[in-house]
Amino acid sequence: KILVTGALGQIGSELVMKLREVYGNDSVLATDIRKEDCEVVHSGPFEILDVQDAKRFSSLAREYHIDTIMHLAALLSAKAEANPQLAWTINMGGLVNALEVAREHNTQFFTPSSIGAFGPNTPKSRTPQDTIQRPTTMYGVNKVSGELLCDYYYQKFGVDTRGVRFPGLISYVTKPGGGTTDYAVEMYYGAKENKAYTSYIKSGTYMDMMYMPDAIHAIIQLMEADSSRLIHRNAFNVSAISAEPEDFAQAIRKHIPDFQLSYDVDPIRQAIAESWPNSINCQAAKEEWGFQPKFDLHSMSEDMLEKI
Ligand code: VAH
After folding, report:
1. Which residues contact 290 (CB under 8 A, 6 or more apart)?
2. Mutate-to-test residue for ligand 1 from 169, 211, 279, 280, highest number of ligand atoms within 8 A of CB
3. How much distance in Å is there from the Cα of 167 to the middle of ligand 1?
4. I need a labelling partner for 120 at 20 to 30 A (CA). Which of 114, 139, 178, 306 fits?
5. Residues whose CB is less than 8 angstroms from the CB of residue 58 and which lie 6 or more positions away in sequence, other chains included
6. Angle, to 10 degrees, between the axis of helix 138-157 and the axis of helix 93-105?
7. What are the tens digits of pLDDT across the range 218-253?
């Protein structure tokens, strides 16, 4: 049975539904710090869990006979930069608790890292799998620390930890909260609702992006991969698209010709975006577990505008 933390979040809400489709409703325990009236709560087991509560975390793992933990509960980059101390407490405190439960109950373990784990002196185009990681944001410090801690739990305690460095994720099921790449999600909504959007990220700012269905598939594919093939573990570069705001606008105009994009740059999120890569190299994920995204900017845009 799989325990998912942050199950009501942007990734969690889609991951839980896909896992229940693949493995059966009762094989996925969804948890989050709050309860909501939604299909994640109604379609299978749900429990309130604050990942800072180590005792409850462990007792839920025991009660539900958990053999896999997918730890998604965290503050994203912009929110973490606004509350750095809280971000450390939740992002690292939650991760340590999750890893300890995995060690204690001998479960498999997944948690995402991010392109945010790279910093200003990391090579910016086709960023290698193994390279300099000196992020300048609290979120990035959390992600690099998390990668090292997960590898440590594998090396030291034999916990089967695996992770991916996610790019900006685009989805229409649950809106992201507090990210930097979220401008791209908001642009699709702005296009659909008002044929216009004002971007807080400057034109020409390239970042890696991926459609949520490809992200969910990557998690399942990595967790089912033959561990003897894995040279890396925490965490694999994965991406599908490298784009800047004008690229999204152009793709949207194929469907909404008079879409207007304007700019009101937020210096804080612009600085975060500029410290991240423009495009990352995903060769290791392709070679070690067959990572292969299906959506490009055009097919993602077509699907997003149809579905929202
Ligand atoms: C964020 N969407 O913007 C997340 C992600 C790569 C970006 O980590 O913080």
Report:
1. 221, 225
2. 169
3. 7
4. 178
5. 100, 101, 104, 105
6. 20
7. 999 999 999 999 999 999 999 999 999 999 999 999
